[in-house]
């Protein structure tokens, strides 16, 4: 779906999410939403906060799992995805904070494997992800699944590509401060979501074209989304120019 502006695209995704939240509320059920970070979903989170404040959308029955977190990083660091999510969304809605799950960037290295396995099990125990929000990196990464990630990959520790560290250096004082590792949901974790929205705005046209129209390949992790049966790309006109 191509929109004139990121604001309109975000409003569309927010509306779809709100409908699903209300539907599950009517059925007395909870709903599991997979969340992304980066600049792309900021306008979506703004709109969800607006729906909460102005239209009374409640998040009491919402359970969230974030895609990824830097490693190592302190939760309270400005750049952590933990801080980002609270700043952009969680501090402004009525979500029960015990329903928020984000990979833990503070754990000692020897505990990470267990933590990743537990994260997968937790997702399964909540019934799996109903709606997954994604952005996309310029190298085709989703979450922090860098090129070369297997379609069978699960939540794990990954080494960030240099290009990713350069792109994300804007949030840090300089590139040397960008963590070299991250914990990310795997591609198989993401692909198990029942519904996926990938959003992209602005200068993402080349990677969007490769992802949507190119080969399905590990070189472009997002291209595996072609094999998902309910995935919508929500993009603006600039990101659509090479389609
Ligand atoms: C980050 C995140 C991804 C995000 C991507 C794009 O590194 N780990 O989940 O989709 O890079 O970022 P942006 O939305 O700022 O372009």
Keywords for this entry:
243 residues; Glucosamine-6-phosphate deaminase; single chain; binds 2-amino-2-deoxy-6-O-phosphono-alpha-D-glucopyranose; globular; alpha/beta; Rossmann fold
Low-confidence stretches: none
How many helices? Answer: 7
Percentage beta strand: 15-25%
- Oligomer state equals single chain
Bound molecules: 2-amino-2-deoxy-6-O-phosphono-alpha-D-glucopyranose
CATH fold call? Rossmann fold
Counted beta strands: 10
What share of the residues lie within helices? 25-40%
Gyration radius (Cα, Å) is: 17 Å
Write down the secondary-structure element order.
EHEHEEHEHEEHEHEHE
Structural class: alpha/beta
Protein name: Glucosamine-6-phosphate deaminase
Domain Glucosamine/galactosamine-6-phosphate isomerase: 6-230
Organism: Segetibacter aerophilus
């Amino acid at each position: 779906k191509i929109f004139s502006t990121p604001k309109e695209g975000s409003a569309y995704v927010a509306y779809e999410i709100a409908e699903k939240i209300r539907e599950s509320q009517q059925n007395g059920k909870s709903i599991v939403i997979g969340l992304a970070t980066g600049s792309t979903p900021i306008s979506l989170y703004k709109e969800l906060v607006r729906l909460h404040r102005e239209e009374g959308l409640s998040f009491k029955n919402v359970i969230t799992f974030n895609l990824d977190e830097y490693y190592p990083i302190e939760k309270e660091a400005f750049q952590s995805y933990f801080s980002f999510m609270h700043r952009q969304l969680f501090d402004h809605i009525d979500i029960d904070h015990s329903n928020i799950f984000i990979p833990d960037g503070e754990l000692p290295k020897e505990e990470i494997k267990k933590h990743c396995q537990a994260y997968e099990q937790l997702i399964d125990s909540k019934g799996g992800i109903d709606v997954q929000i994604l952005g996309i990196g310029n190298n085709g990464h989703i979450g922090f699944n860098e090129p070369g990630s297997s379609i069978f990959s699960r939540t794990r520790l990954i080494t960030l590509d240099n290009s990713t560290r350069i792109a994300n250096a804007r949030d840090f004082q300089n590139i040397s401060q960008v963590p070299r590792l991250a914990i990310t949901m795997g591609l198989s974790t993401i692909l198990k979501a029942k519904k996926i929205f990938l959003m992209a705005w602005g200068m993402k046209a080349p990677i969007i074209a490769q992802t949507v129209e190119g080969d399905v390949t590990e070189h472009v992790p997002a291209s595996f989304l072609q094999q998902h049966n309910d995935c919508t790309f929500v993009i603006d006109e600039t990101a659509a120019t090479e389609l």
